[in-house]
């Protein structure tokens, strides 16, 4: 009985039969799986019991590795080493004044952690200076920041109850009061700071220095200092 063709399924007669790769083919059906070029017994290459020409023969460039406990341990160790190197490169690039373009979740987490450490250090230094009776000079950034914060807290107390809705123009001589929206959750680190949640609206916001602002959380009605890089302007 004549066998069927492995390609078209029709009967293959002896005069047109090509027996290869444990299958029977019509001469015209024995062609490359990719480019359809007709092959013969001299120029074909078999892969997974299918014929290919030399140009389209599949090239295996990967090796399957079993997830043994040792391989898992090595993989975890490699990931930890990569994270350590990433943090090191980030610190070095920051020291050179180079701004990294990628904003990965790991990058954001490192940035938030670094900011919280900087905030804690700042308040620690301030409390230490205040505890030993040292009064910073007028040109000291920490002194200027707290002077402006205290002034704004006094103004907020005077105006409390007068602004229940978001206003765009400042009633005081000075300019425009900007409205901001929180990008992340923030927990106050000191008595003069204010806590807020992601998505909260910050009204009556005014910059104090390069890294801090003073404003009122519309949801809670509380006013205080807040990190400027945790909010974005909505105006």
From TrEMBL:
Example GO molecular function: actin filament binding
Keywords: LIM domain, Metal-binding, Repeat, SH3 domain, Zinc
Residue span, LIM zinc-binding domain: 3-63
InterPro entries: LIM-SH3_domain_protein (IPR051759), Nebulin_repeat (IPR000900), SH3-like_dom_sf (IPR036028), SH3_domain (IPR001452), Znf_LIM (IPR001781)
GO CC annotation: cytoplasm; focal adhesion
Gene3D superfamilies referenced in this protein's UniProt entry, alphabetically: Cysteine Rich Protein, SH3 Domains
Domain SH3 residues, every copy: 175-235
Superkingdom in the source lineage: Eukaryota
Pfam families hit by this protein: LIM, Nebulin, SH3_9
CDD domains: LIM_LASP, SH3_Nebulin_family_C
SMART domains linked to this entry: LIM (SM00132), NEBU (SM00227), SH3 (SM00326)
Name of the featured protein: Nebulette
Organism: Amphilophus citrinellus (Midas cichlid)
Lineage: Eukaryota, Metazoa, Chordata, Craniata, Vertebrata
């Amino acid at each position: 009985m004549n066998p069927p063709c492995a390609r078209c399924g029709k009967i293959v007669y002896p005069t047109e039969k090509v027996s290869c790769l444990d299958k029977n083919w019509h001469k015209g059906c024995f062609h490359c799986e990719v480019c359809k070029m007709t092959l013969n017994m001299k120029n074909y290459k078999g892969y997974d019991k299918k014929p290919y020409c030399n140009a389209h023969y599949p090239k295996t460039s990967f090796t399957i590795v079993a997830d043994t406990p040792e391989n898992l341990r090595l993989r975890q160790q490699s990931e930890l080493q990569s994270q350590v190197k990433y943090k090191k490169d980030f610190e070095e690039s920051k020291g050179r004044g180079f701004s990294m373009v990628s904003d990965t979740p790991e990058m954001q987490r490192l940035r938030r952690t670094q900011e919280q450490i900087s905030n804690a250090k700042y308040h620690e230094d301030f409390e230490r200076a205040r505890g030993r009776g040292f009064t910073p000079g007028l040109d000291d950034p920490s002194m200027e920041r707290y002077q402006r914060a205290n002034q704004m807290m006094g103004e907020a107390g005077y105006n409390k109850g007068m602004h229940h809705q978001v206003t765009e123009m400042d009633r005081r001589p000075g300019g425009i009061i900007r409205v901001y929206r929180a990008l992340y959750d923030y927990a106050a680190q000191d008595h003069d700071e204010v806590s807020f949640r992601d998505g909260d609206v910050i009204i009556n916001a005014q910059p104090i220095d390069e890294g801090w602002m003073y404003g009122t959380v519309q949801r809670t009605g509380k006013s205080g200092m807040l990190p400027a890089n945790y909010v974005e302007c909505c105006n």
